[in-house]
Design a protein that fits this description.
Belongs to the FldB/FldC dehydratase alpha/beta subunit family. This is 2-hydroxyacyl-CoA dehydratase. It is a single chain. The protein has 412 residues and is an alpha/beta fold. It has one domain. The protein has 17 helices and eight strands. It has helices spanning 3-10, 20-30, 35-57, 70-75, 86-89, 92-102, 111-122, 139-148, 168-191, 197-221, 230-239, 247-263, 287-295, 319-330, 336-350, 364-379, 398-411; strands at 61-64, 79-82, 130-134, 154-158, 275-281, 298-304, 354-360, 384-389. The protein starts with a helix and ends with a helix.
Length: 412
Protein backbone atom coordinates (compact mmCIF):
# COMPACT_ATOMS: atom_id res chain seq x y z
CA UNK A 1 0.00 0.00 0.00
CA UNK A 2 1.29 3.47 -0.88
CA UNK A 3 2.50 5.67 1.94
CA UNK A 4 -0.31 8.18 1.47
CA UNK A 5 -2.88 5.39 1.66
CA UNK A 6 -1.26 4.04 4.81
CA UNK A 7 -1.47 7.52 6.26
CA UNK A 8 -5.15 7.72 5.37
CA UNK A 9 -5.87 4.31 6.83
CA UNK A 10 -4.14 5.09 10.11
CA UNK A 11 -5.33 8.67 10.57
CA UNK A 12 -7.09 9.14 13.87
CA UNK A 13 -10.04 11.35 13.09
CA UNK A 14 -10.91 13.27 16.21
CA UNK A 15 -13.04 16.35 15.67
CA UNK A 16 -12.22 18.39 12.56
CA UNK A 17 -9.75 16.70 10.18
CA UNK A 18 -6.31 18.29 10.15
CA UNK A 19 -5.33 17.64 6.56
CA UNK A 20 -6.69 16.52 3.20
CA UNK A 21 -5.93 12.83 3.75
CA UNK A 22 -7.96 12.85 6.96
CA UNK A 23 -10.87 14.52 5.13
CA UNK A 24 -10.70 11.73 2.55
CA UNK A 25 -10.68 9.11 5.27
CA UNK A 26 -13.67 10.76 6.92
CA UNK A 27 -15.47 10.84 3.58
CA UNK A 28 -14.66 7.16 3.05
CA UNK A 29 -16.36 6.35 6.33
CA UNK A 30 -19.35 8.54 5.50
CA UNK A 31 -19.70 6.63 2.19
CA UNK A 32 -19.22 3.19 3.73
CA UNK A 33 -22.26 1.97 1.77
CA UNK A 34 -20.67 2.73 -1.62
CA UNK A 35 -18.01 0.39 -3.05
CA UNK A 36 -17.67 2.84 -5.93
CA UNK A 37 -16.61 5.71 -3.69
CA UNK A 38 -14.04 3.49 -2.00
CA UNK A 39 -12.58 2.70 -5.43
CA UNK A 40 -12.64 6.40 -6.34
CA UNK A 41 -10.48 7.31 -3.38
CA UNK A 42 -8.16 4.37 -4.09
CA UNK A 43 -7.62 5.79 -7.58
CA UNK A 44 -7.09 9.32 -6.29
CA UNK A 45 -4.58 8.33 -3.61
CA UNK A 46 -2.56 6.08 -5.90
CA UNK A 47 -2.59 8.53 -8.85
CA UNK A 48 0.79 10.26 -8.46
CA UNK A 49 2.75 7.38 -6.92
CA UNK A 50 1.66 4.99 -9.68
CA UNK A 51 2.31 7.52 -12.46
CA UNK A 52 5.80 8.24 -11.12
CA UNK A 53 6.55 4.53 -10.74
CA UNK A 54 5.27 3.86 -14.26
CA UNK A 55 7.45 6.62 -15.63
CA UNK A 56 10.49 5.00 -14.06
CA UNK A 57 9.49 1.67 -15.59
CA UNK A 58 8.97 3.01 -19.10
CA UNK A 59 5.46 4.48 -19.31
CA UNK A 60 6.07 8.20 -19.90
CA UNK A 61 4.34 10.80 -17.71
CA UNK A 62 4.25 14.57 -17.96
CA UNK A 63 3.10 17.37 -15.70
CA UNK A 64 0.17 19.20 -17.28
CA UNK A 65 -2.77 21.31 -16.21
CA UNK A 66 -5.19 18.39 -16.00
CA UNK A 67 -7.98 20.36 -17.65
CA UNK A 68 -8.77 19.14 -21.17
CA UNK A 69 -5.54 17.74 -22.66
CA UNK A 70 -6.15 14.05 -21.96
CA UNK A 71 -6.96 13.00 -25.57
CA UNK A 72 -3.71 14.49 -26.87
CA UNK A 73 -1.48 13.16 -24.09
CA UNK A 74 -2.95 9.65 -24.05
CA UNK A 75 -2.64 9.56 -27.85
CA UNK A 76 1.07 10.16 -27.23
CA UNK A 77 1.11 7.19 -24.79
CA UNK A 78 1.86 9.63 -21.96
CA UNK A 79 0.16 9.80 -18.54
CA UNK A 80 -0.94 13.32 -17.57
CA UNK A 81 0.00 14.34 -14.02
CA UNK A 82 -2.29 17.22 -13.14
CA UNK A 83 -0.44 20.20 -11.68
CA UNK A 84 -3.48 21.37 -9.72
CA UNK A 85 -3.95 18.00 -8.05
CA UNK A 86 -0.61 18.46 -6.31
CA UNK A 87 -2.25 20.61 -3.67
CA UNK A 88 -5.06 18.17 -3.01
CA UNK A 89 -2.77 15.36 -1.95
CA UNK A 90 0.50 17.19 -1.39
CA UNK A 91 1.83 19.09 1.58
CA UNK A 92 0.98 22.63 0.58
CA UNK A 93 1.83 24.25 3.91
CA UNK A 94 5.35 22.81 3.90
CA UNK A 95 5.69 23.55 0.18
CA UNK A 96 4.69 27.21 0.61
CA UNK A 97 7.14 27.59 3.50
CA UNK A 98 9.90 26.15 1.30
CA UNK A 99 9.13 28.73 -1.39
CA UNK A 100 9.29 31.55 1.14
CA UNK A 101 12.49 30.33 2.79
CA UNK A 102 14.49 29.01 -0.16
CA UNK A 103 13.39 31.41 -2.90
CA UNK A 104 12.64 34.47 -0.74
CA UNK A 105 9.13 34.60 -2.11
CA UNK A 106 7.08 37.19 -0.21
CA UNK A 107 4.13 35.96 1.82
CA UNK A 108 1.87 38.03 -0.44
CA UNK A 109 2.70 35.76 -3.37
CA UNK A 110 -0.24 33.72 -4.66
CA UNK A 111 -0.48 30.73 -2.35
CA UNK A 112 -1.07 28.42 -5.31
CA UNK A 113 2.15 29.44 -7.04
CA UNK A 114 4.17 29.31 -3.82
CA UNK A 115 2.84 25.86 -2.98
CA UNK A 116 3.40 24.41 -6.45
CA UNK A 117 6.98 25.68 -6.66
CA UNK A 118 7.63 24.12 -3.29
CA UNK A 119 6.02 20.84 -4.35
CA UNK A 120 8.19 20.68 -7.47
CA UNK A 121 11.26 21.49 -5.42
CA UNK A 122 10.51 18.51 -3.17
CA UNK A 123 10.11 16.38 -6.32
CA UNK A 124 13.22 17.70 -8.05
CA UNK A 125 14.91 14.29 -7.83
CA UNK A 126 11.89 12.35 -9.10
CA UNK A 127 11.76 10.99 -12.61
CA UNK A 128 8.95 13.08 -14.11
CA UNK A 129 10.68 16.22 -15.34
CA UNK A 130 8.66 17.22 -18.42
CA UNK A 131 5.98 19.92 -18.14
CA UNK A 132 3.37 21.01 -20.69
CA UNK A 133 2.38 24.55 -19.71
CA UNK A 134 -0.67 26.35 -21.06
CA UNK A 135 0.36 30.00 -21.28
CA UNK A 136 -3.00 31.64 -20.55
CA UNK A 137 -3.98 29.71 -17.43
CA UNK A 138 -2.17 31.91 -14.89
CA UNK A 139 0.52 34.54 -15.42
CA UNK A 140 2.13 34.14 -11.96
CA UNK A 141 2.33 30.40 -12.64
CA UNK A 142 4.11 31.16 -15.91
CA UNK A 143 6.82 32.83 -13.83
CA UNK A 144 6.85 29.79 -11.55
CA UNK A 145 7.57 27.57 -14.54
CA UNK A 146 10.63 29.68 -15.28
CA UNK A 147 11.85 29.18 -11.71
CA UNK A 148 11.62 25.40 -11.75
CA UNK A 149 13.81 25.15 -14.84
CA UNK A 150 16.78 25.37 -12.49
CA UNK A 151 15.62 22.11 -10.87
CA UNK A 152 16.02 20.34 -14.22
CA UNK A 153 12.39 20.50 -15.36
CA UNK A 154 11.88 20.65 -19.13
CA UNK A 155 9.12 23.19 -19.86
CA UNK A 156 7.15 23.19 -23.11
CA UNK A 157 4.82 26.16 -23.47
CA UNK A 158 1.60 26.13 -25.45
CA UNK A 159 0.79 29.63 -26.66
CA UNK A 160 -2.91 29.45 -26.05
CA UNK A 161 -5.14 32.01 -27.72
CA UNK A 162 -8.48 33.17 -26.32
CA UNK A 163 -11.64 33.43 -28.37
CA UNK A 164 -12.69 37.09 -28.69
CA UNK A 165 -16.23 38.27 -28.15
CA UNK A 166 -16.07 39.99 -31.56
CA UNK A 167 -13.91 39.53 -34.64
CA UNK A 168 -15.77 37.36 -37.10
CA UNK A 169 -15.37 33.85 -38.45
CA UNK A 170 -12.22 34.59 -40.43
CA UNK A 171 -10.30 35.64 -37.33
CA UNK A 172 -11.64 32.64 -35.41
CA UNK A 173 -10.47 30.22 -38.10
CA UNK A 174 -7.00 31.77 -37.99
CA UNK A 175 -6.88 31.28 -34.23
CA UNK A 176 -8.02 27.65 -34.54
CA UNK A 177 -5.30 26.93 -37.09
CA UNK A 178 -2.65 28.53 -34.88
CA UNK A 179 -3.77 26.70 -31.74
CA UNK A 180 -3.90 23.35 -33.57
CA UNK A 181 -0.28 23.86 -34.64
CA UNK A 182 0.68 24.63 -31.03
CA UNK A 183 -0.99 21.40 -29.91
CA UNK A 184 0.83 19.47 -32.63
CA UNK A 185 4.09 20.76 -31.14
CA UNK A 186 3.16 19.08 -27.85
CA UNK A 187 3.27 15.72 -29.62
CA UNK A 188 6.75 16.49 -30.97
CA UNK A 189 7.86 17.51 -27.47
CA UNK A 190 6.63 14.23 -25.98
CA UNK A 191 7.40 11.74 -28.74
CA UNK A 192 9.58 13.44 -31.36
CA UNK A 193 6.95 12.88 -34.05
CA UNK A 194 3.46 14.05 -35.10
CA UNK A 195 0.49 12.84 -33.13
CA UNK A 196 -1.12 9.60 -34.28
CA UNK A 197 -4.44 11.02 -35.45
CA UNK A 198 -6.27 7.70 -35.31
CA UNK A 199 -5.22 7.19 -31.71
CA UNK A 200 -6.28 10.73 -30.85
CA UNK A 201 -9.65 10.19 -32.55
CA UNK A 202 -10.13 7.13 -30.37
CA UNK A 203 -9.18 9.14 -27.28
CA UNK A 204 -11.69 11.86 -28.17
CA UNK A 205 -14.38 9.21 -28.53
CA UNK A 206 -13.39 7.81 -25.16
CA UNK A 207 -13.54 11.26 -23.55
CA UNK A 208 -17.00 11.89 -25.01
CA UNK A 209 -18.15 8.49 -23.74
CA UNK A 210 -16.79 9.11 -20.24
CA UNK A 211 -18.29 12.59 -20.08
CA UNK A 212 -21.68 11.18 -21.04
CA UNK A 213 -21.39 8.76 -18.12
CA UNK A 214 -20.30 11.55 -15.78
CA UNK A 215 -23.31 13.62 -16.83
CA UNK A 216 -25.54 10.62 -16.17
CA UNK A 217 -24.16 10.43 -12.63
CA UNK A 218 -24.94 14.11 -12.10
CA UNK A 219 -28.45 13.56 -13.46
CA UNK A 220 -29.03 10.63 -11.11
CA UNK A 221 -27.73 12.73 -8.21
CA UNK A 222 -30.62 15.14 -8.70
CA UNK A 223 -32.91 12.52 -7.16
CA UNK A 224 -30.47 11.39 -4.46
CA UNK A 225 -27.96 14.25 -4.00
CA UNK A 226 -26.20 13.04 -0.87
CA UNK A 227 -25.57 9.45 -1.91
CA UNK A 228 -22.42 10.85 -3.54
CA UNK A 229 -21.63 13.91 -1.49
CA UNK A 230 -19.69 16.99 -2.56
CA UNK A 231 -16.09 15.87 -1.95
CA UNK A 232 -16.24 12.63 -3.97
CA UNK A 233 -18.12 14.51 -6.71
CA UNK A 234 -15.17 16.92 -6.81
CA UNK A 235 -12.77 13.99 -7.22
CA UNK A 236 -14.92 12.49 -9.96
CA UNK A 237 -14.82 15.86 -11.69
CA UNK A 238 -11.04 16.12 -11.36
CA UNK A 239 -10.64 12.57 -12.63
CA UNK A 240 -12.67 13.39 -15.72
CA UNK A 241 -9.65 15.32 -17.02
CA UNK A 242 -6.92 12.71 -16.51
CA UNK A 243 -8.68 9.48 -15.36
CA UNK A 244 -6.12 9.26 -12.53
CA UNK A 245 -3.74 7.78 -15.09
CA UNK A 246 -5.96 4.68 -15.43
CA UNK A 247 -8.65 5.26 -18.08
CA UNK A 248 -10.16 1.76 -18.01
CA UNK A 249 -10.44 1.74 -14.22
CA UNK A 250 -11.96 5.23 -14.20
CA UNK A 251 -14.59 4.19 -16.74
CA UNK A 252 -15.41 1.05 -14.75
CA UNK A 253 -15.80 3.26 -11.69
CA UNK A 254 -18.29 5.50 -13.49
CA UNK A 255 -20.28 2.45 -14.59
CA UNK A 256 -20.34 1.13 -11.04
CA UNK A 257 -21.56 4.43 -9.58
CA UNK A 258 -24.30 4.67 -12.20
CA UNK A 259 -25.58 1.24 -11.20
CA UNK A 260 -25.35 2.10 -7.51
CA UNK A 261 -27.34 5.30 -7.96
CA UNK A 262 -30.09 3.54 -9.91
CA UNK A 263 -30.96 1.30 -6.97
CA UNK A 264 -29.60 3.17 -3.94
CA UNK A 265 -31.69 4.03 -0.92
CA UNK A 266 -32.29 7.74 -0.50
CA UNK A 267 -29.72 9.44 1.77
CA UNK A 268 -31.46 12.21 3.74
CA UNK A 269 -29.94 15.53 4.68
CA UNK A 270 -28.99 15.94 8.34
CA UNK A 271 -30.96 19.19 8.23
CA UNK A 272 -34.14 17.59 6.92
CA UNK A 273 -34.09 19.41 3.58
CA UNK A 274 -31.73 19.74 0.62
CA UNK A 275 -30.82 23.06 -1.01
CA UNK A 276 -29.54 22.57 -4.61
CA UNK A 277 -26.51 24.74 -5.40
CA UNK A 278 -24.10 25.49 -8.24
CA UNK A 279 -20.36 25.84 -7.64
CA UNK A 280 -18.54 28.35 -9.88
CA UNK A 281 -14.82 29.04 -10.04
CA UNK A 282 -11.77 27.29 -8.66
CA UNK A 283 -11.85 23.72 -7.34
CA UNK A 284 -11.03 24.51 -3.74
CA UNK A 285 -8.48 22.64 -1.67
CA UNK A 286 -10.24 23.35 1.61
CA UNK A 287 -12.24 20.15 1.76
CA UNK A 288 -14.01 21.29 4.91
CA UNK A 289 -16.04 23.72 2.81
CA UNK A 290 -17.54 20.84 0.84
CA UNK A 291 -18.28 18.95 4.03
CA UNK A 292 -19.92 22.05 5.51
CA UNK A 293 -22.18 22.40 2.48
CA UNK A 294 -23.38 18.80 2.90
CA UNK A 295 -23.78 19.05 6.67
CA UNK A 296 -25.78 22.27 6.40
CA UNK A 297 -28.28 20.84 3.93
CA UNK A 298 -26.74 22.05 0.69
CA UNK A 299 -26.02 19.89 -2.35
CA UNK A 300 -23.61 20.93 -5.10
CA UNK A 301 -25.45 19.61 -8.14
CA UNK A 302 -23.65 21.46 -10.92
CA UNK A 303 -20.08 22.69 -11.26
CA UNK A 304 -18.71 25.39 -13.54
CA UNK A 305 -14.98 24.92 -13.05
CA UNK A 306 -11.90 24.54 -15.28
CA UNK A 307 -13.02 20.92 -15.84
CA UNK A 308 -15.81 21.27 -18.41
CA UNK A 309 -18.12 18.28 -18.68
CA UNK A 310 -21.23 19.64 -20.38
CA UNK A 311 -20.08 19.68 -24.01
CA UNK A 312 -19.21 17.12 -26.66
CA UNK A 313 -15.99 17.16 -28.66
CA UNK A 314 -16.49 17.09 -32.43
CA UNK A 315 -15.50 13.61 -33.66
CA UNK A 316 -16.01 14.43 -37.37
CA UNK A 317 -13.11 16.84 -37.90
CA UNK A 318 -9.32 16.44 -37.54
CA UNK A 319 -8.60 15.73 -33.87
CA UNK A 320 -6.23 18.64 -33.26
CA UNK A 321 -8.79 21.00 -34.76
CA UNK A 322 -11.45 19.43 -32.55
CA UNK A 323 -9.31 20.12 -29.49
CA UNK A 324 -8.58 23.69 -30.59
CA UNK A 325 -12.27 24.41 -31.18
CA UNK A 326 -13.17 22.94 -27.81
CA UNK A 327 -10.66 25.17 -26.05
CA UNK A 328 -11.72 28.32 -27.87
CA UNK A 329 -15.43 27.64 -27.50
CA UNK A 330 -15.51 26.82 -23.83
CA UNK A 331 -12.26 26.83 -21.95
CA UNK A 332 -12.47 28.71 -18.67
CA UNK A 333 -9.66 31.15 -19.52
CA UNK A 334 -11.80 32.69 -22.23
CA UNK A 335 -13.97 35.75 -21.94
CA UNK A 336 -16.54 35.48 -19.13
CA UNK A 337 -19.11 36.81 -21.59
CA UNK A 338 -18.72 33.57 -23.58
CA UNK A 339 -19.15 31.45 -20.46
CA UNK A 340 -22.30 32.87 -18.87
CA UNK A 341 -24.68 30.86 -21.07
CA UNK A 342 -23.14 27.60 -19.84
CA UNK A 343 -23.64 28.59 -16.21
CA UNK A 344 -27.25 29.54 -16.94
CA UNK A 345 -27.84 26.11 -18.46
CA UNK A 346 -26.34 24.40 -15.41
CA UNK A 347 -28.54 26.35 -13.02
CA UNK A 348 -31.65 25.52 -15.00
CA UNK A 349 -30.88 21.81 -15.40
CA UNK A 350 -29.92 21.28 -11.74
CA UNK A 351 -32.68 23.47 -10.29
CA UNK A 352 -30.13 25.39 -8.24
CA UNK A 353 -31.44 27.93 -5.75
CA UNK A 354 -28.11 29.69 -5.37
CA UNK A 355 -24.47 29.88 -6.42
CA UNK A 356 -21.19 29.66 -4.54
CA UNK A 357 -18.36 31.57 -6.22
CA UNK A 358 -14.94 30.29 -5.10
CA UNK A 359 -11.64 32.05 -5.75
CA UNK A 360 -8.20 31.97 -4.20
CA UNK A 361 -7.14 34.93 -2.08
CA UNK A 362 -5.22 37.45 -4.14
CA UNK A 363 -6.00 35.91 -7.54
CA UNK A 364 -6.86 38.86 -9.82
CA UNK A 365 -7.88 36.63 -12.72
CA UNK A 366 -10.39 34.61 -10.72
CA UNK A 367 -11.61 37.65 -8.85
CA UNK A 368 -12.40 39.58 -12.03
CA UNK A 369 -14.34 36.67 -13.52
CA UNK A 370 -16.35 36.20 -10.34
CA UNK A 371 -17.30 39.87 -10.18
CA UNK A 372 -18.55 39.78 -13.77
CA UNK A 373 -20.53 36.61 -13.10
CA UNK A 374 -21.89 37.89 -9.81
CA UNK A 375 -23.10 41.13 -11.38
CA UNK A 376 -24.85 39.27 -14.20
CA UNK A 377 -26.66 36.79 -11.97
CA UNK A 378 -27.52 39.40 -9.36
CA UNK A 379 -29.42 41.26 -12.04
CA UNK A 380 -31.24 38.02 -12.89
CA UNK A 381 -32.20 37.51 -9.24
CA UNK A 382 -30.03 34.44 -8.58
CA UNK A 383 -28.64 34.52 -5.00
CA UNK A 384 -24.90 34.00 -4.65
CA UNK A 385 -22.10 34.10 -2.12
CA UNK A 386 -18.42 34.68 -2.74
CA UNK A 387 -15.87 32.46 -0.98
CA UNK A 388 -12.18 33.30 -0.87
CA UNK A 389 -9.96 30.39 0.07
CA UNK A 390 -6.26 29.61 0.03
CA UNK A 391 -4.10 26.97 -1.62
CA UNK A 392 -3.44 25.30 1.71
CA UNK A 393 -4.30 21.99 3.27
CA UNK A 394 -6.13 21.58 6.54
CA UNK A 395 -9.40 22.92 7.86
CA UNK A 396 -10.92 26.03 6.25
CA UNK A 397 -11.10 29.27 8.17
CA UNK A 398 -14.02 29.89 10.50
CA UNK A 399 -14.94 32.92 8.40
CA UNK A 400 -15.30 30.76 5.30
CA UNK A 401 -17.56 28.28 7.09
CA UNK A 402 -19.62 31.12 8.55
CA UNK A 403 -20.26 32.48 5.06
CA UNK A 404 -21.36 29.06 3.83
CA UNK A 405 -23.65 28.60 6.82
CA UNK A 406 -25.22 32.05 6.46
CA UNK A 407 -25.85 31.60 2.75
CA UNK A 408 -27.48 28.17 3.04
CA UNK A 409 -29.59 29.32 5.98
CA UNK A 410 -30.76 32.26 3.89
CA UNK A 411 -31.92 29.89 1.15
CA UNK A 412 -33.57 27.42 3.54
Amino acid sequence: MHAVMEKAASAAITGEPRNQVEYIQQSREAHHYSPGIQKLYDLALSYFPDAEKGNQEGTPAVWSTGLMEAPLLYACDTIPMAVYDLGRLGSAVEAAELSENIFDMPKETCSMVSALIGEWYMRRNNSVKKVVALSTVCEPLNMGYEMIKEFGFDIHRVEQVIRPVHGGDERLEQMIKFLASELEDVAFFLTGKPVDEEKMRAEIKRLNRLMAKFREILKLRLKNPLYIKSLPTLFLLMGSAHYFGKPAEYEALLDQLIEELKTADFVPSPMGKIIPLTWVGARGLEFGVYKAVDDLGGALLSWFTPNPYDRVWNEDIPPLESMARFILDYFVTGSPVNQIKYIENMIEESGSKGMLFYTYIGCPYGGMHVELFRDHFHKKGVPSSGLEGSWQVGAPSGQLITRVRAFIEMLS
